[in-house]
Amino acid sequence: MSDSPGDGAPRPTDSPGDGAPRPTDPPGDGAPRLADLPSDLRSAPVPPLAADDHVRGPPGAPLVIVYADFACSFCALANERLRAAGVRYAFRHFALRAKHPRAVALACAAEAAGRQGSFWEMHDALFADQGRLDDPHLWERASGLGLDIGRFERDRRDAAVVARVQRDVHSGLRAGVAVTPTLFVAGEAQPGPPDPQRLGALFTGAPAHRPDTV
Amino acid sequence: MTVLAPGTPVPPFALGTEEGGRFTEADLDGHTTVLVFYPFAFSPVCSEQLSLYEEVLGELEAQGARIYGVSCDSSYSQRAFREQLGVSIPQLSDWEPKGAACRAFGVLHDGGFPERALVIVGPDRTVRWSHQAASPGDLPGANVLFDGLATAGATAPRS
Questions:
Q1: pTM to 2 decimals?
Q2: Chain A residues with beta carbon closer than 8 angstroms to that of B52
Q3: Do B147 and B118 touch, CB atoms closer than 8 A?
Q4: Which CATH number applies to B14-125: 3.50.50.60, 3.30.1250.10, 3.40.30.10, 3.40.50.300?
Q5: What is the per-residue DSSP string for B27-40?
Q6: Residues of B at the A interface (Cβ-Cβ below 8 Å)?
Q7: Is B18:B124 a contact under the CB 8 Å cutoff?
Q8: For B4-48, how does the pLDDT look when each residue is reduced to its tens digit (9 = 90+)?
Q9: For residue A39, what is the nearest residue in chain B, using CA coordinates?
Q10: Fewest CB within 10 angstroms: A136, B11, B46, B149, which?
């Protein structure tokens, strides 16, 4: 493999010229780094669905927008509960380097799988086994899904994939996302995994619940 | 007790740095400073908060702002907390006399720990913007910081 440091291969996520080492960079895990975020991080409403948003669930059902991180076990729980409740939801990345060293790499891996039509399959596979999130485990998953591994490897480091993840993180930051998962129902933020007994209330205008721990 | 309002000159204070030095009002001169008062090192919400703000450090720096975490924990605890999180935001300790600086900024909780509050101080040692969370468990998003910086810039005195 050509993953070893110093092989001279361009890394699209390295921002040339910023020079200063950042102590928060995860050491040597090969994770792509998000490019510098766009300049305006002031408050803005959560963006409506875009054509390239990842959406699943019954067509026509009310939509939940979920900001989540593949290295977050509470997000895995939220996904399970949303699926069980038959909710229609859009997944958006909220991958923070400082929160989970693998968060950005996993987000990019899901996007790369998406380029081969397997975003949700990779999404589910990542959430299904939170103990195995290193690169060899990604290759195992990609292989199991029948993906072209060479293409998967190139795509998950592609600048456009990193930018796609960054777009979600940026919109989440502006919408006030502070913890994962955060669900938006009719534009209102609800932090924490949804209580299954109250999931129905998402659509009835009942007061939003507060998470037990954030 | 409420957090210092915009327009208030910062009173004299002293906080301890991780290196064993002192951080006082004089260290505010010439920079826009963001002070993040948080209740406790290693507590769940505080961990989320510093990780979140770490993500936007580059943009804070691009806007010429310096950010610090402030709590009543000892510098040793703060360093261990920062290193465990893997964040680089410098920490300032209000350890001895405990809570004195938090009291000066109007953010000392009755329980002896800082309220969760954000204070933006201008290069002239004047508070430009401040925010105190409704409860210590509420986490202001990064957007709140940048709204504050925008407000702070807009209210800056013309020089």
A1: 0.84
A2: 96, 98-99, 178
A3: no
A4: 3.40.30.10
A5: GGTTSEEEEEE-S-
A6: 44-45, 48-52, 54-59, 62, 85-88, 137, 139-147, 150
A7: no
A8: 999 999 999 999 999 999 999 999 999 999 999 999 999 877 788
A9: B59
A10: A136
